[in-house]
Amino acid sequence: MPRARVLASIPQFVFFSLLASLGAVALAAKSWHWVVDFSRASVSDDGSHLVIRDAHPDYVNAALAMGAERLAPGSSERTP
């Protein structure tokens, strides 16, 4: 009989696992904004360039040496 009990409880386990997964997906979708805040890289408003915030100084120096443009702080527009 123990085998019959285990087999009978499998559909309930699957149902509750599915329910928990859907709950986790709903919570993740609700709090998606933290991913954007956590990320240091984003695309500019017009989509023409990549913006990296709080980059390591060595990375900034190397990128500028290779022709990258520095943006004004807090802006997604190029400096003149």
TrEMBL record:
This is Uncharacterized protein. It comes from Rhodococcus triatomae.
